[in-house]
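tool=predict chain=A
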Amino acid sequence: MVLKMRFCVCDDEPVVANIIKKEIETKIKGTFAEGIDVDIYNNAHDLMCENLYKNYTAVFMDIEMEGVRGDKAVKYFRKSFPEQKIIFVSAYEYMAFETYDVKPVAFVRKSRLEKDMSIAVELLLKELADEDFKLDIKRKDGTAVFESLSNVLYIEILNHLSIVHTHTADGMEETIESRESLRSFRKKLENKGFIMVHKSYFVNMKHIYSISKTELVLVNRKKIPVSKHRLEYVKTVFADYIWRFVR
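tool=predict ok
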């Protein structure tokens, strides 16, 4: 893990911005060996300019601001920093539904600022820890490869092989063929945000975009079949995963 972490808060309400900064410093202080930096911006435009070279680990972003909206700025960030962690902050709870497409770590309601911040920081630290987790995959030729958890899209069974589908930094999909059983991968990835959607498909929920009656769509628009008897279970677990930060 990178020892020095940089965080920022972007909110046009100074009181709110300072509360968020204090919560970050209080709850994360001591987690990283060389400490953390937390910067404050009062508009998204300035952050968009600074982020290009500061490349923050995580951004706590207000949505409704004058000038550039926070959600629009985040979509801009995603082009250069797809792995940057985003925590949205808003006075409007319904915005949680409208911002899911950029896969935020959490959604903080200003009406429950301190409570939601506690949950958001907890989820952020878990996601950062999961990034350190490397999935060890034994290729069918016996050699081993270690893949970052966030890069794994899904694992499928095909012709008695486990096919691990991953994505690269430029968005391309790659596959790794393994003789390990799907049961083995399920054990390795227990409590890591994966779900069985079909007897042959084990999917990383981080990459799910939508679910219909017969299939799910990943963020890269790849379609994965969903078993009829698993559909309600998959919908329930995925809904809990999405709104795990709204308690």
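The longest helix spans residues 113-132. The chain is about 30% helix and 30% strand.
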